[in-house]
Amino acid sequence: MKTYVATPTKRQRDWYIVDAEGQTLGRLATQLADTLRGKRKPDYTPHIDTGDFVVVINAEKIKVTGDKLNQKIYWRHSGFPGGIKSRTLGEMLEKQPEEVIRKAVKGMMPRNKLSRQQLLKLKVHAGPEHTHQAQQPKPLEIQN
After folding, report:
1. pLDDT (tens digit per residue) in 49-93
2. Burial readout 21-38 (b: 16 or more C-beta within 10 A, e: otherwise)
3. Cα dihedral sign for 107, 98, 37, 17?
4. Domains of the chain with bracketed CATH
């Protein structure tokens, strides 16, 4: 019995759209990461990018459990002494709601070159409008 290995020339990439309104951040991020990696497909191969494109709309309307809006902190550093900055999740949702989902999905991906390439297939939009109508994205079913 032979083992099937997907090749980049034989992969089929679909476009999916996800409405993030009312979705829990972590549960949504795990399923988006699986779709980007191609783990929902029967021809999944770990070292080949067989994943699909995902368009996320209404990123500003996600929900989180507990008091994470005030307690979860995002850190960044400029590289200079004393250059550390922090923002809470509530502040991030006001200023950069797209980055909240992008950082959550990035944290669920493996740390390698392939996952950085797969993360480029994630398109996040704060509101209900998106610029990918030409690709005719299909709705992606998210299990809660």
Report:
1. 999 999 999 999 999 999 999 999 999 999 999 999 999 999 999
2. eebebeebbebbbbbbbb
3. positive
4. 15-63+94-139 (3.90.1180.10)
The secondary element (H helix, E strand) that includes residue 29 is helix 25-37
Question: What three-state secondary structure class fits 55?
Answer: strand
Rounded to an integer, the average pLDDT of 102-121 is 97
How far is residue 57 from each of residues 1, 20, 21, 60, measured CA to CA in Å? 43, 6, 8, 9
| Portion of the chain with pLDDT greater than 90, in percent | 90
Which residues pair with residue 55 across a beta bridge?
Answer: 17, 123
What element of type H or E holds 93? Answer: helix 89-95
How many residues are listed for the chain in this entry? Answer: 144
Q: How far apart are CA 16 and CA 82, in angstroms?
A: 42
| 57 close to 130: Cβ distance less than 8 angstroms | yes
- What is the rounded CA–CA span in Å between residue 42 and residue 30? 18
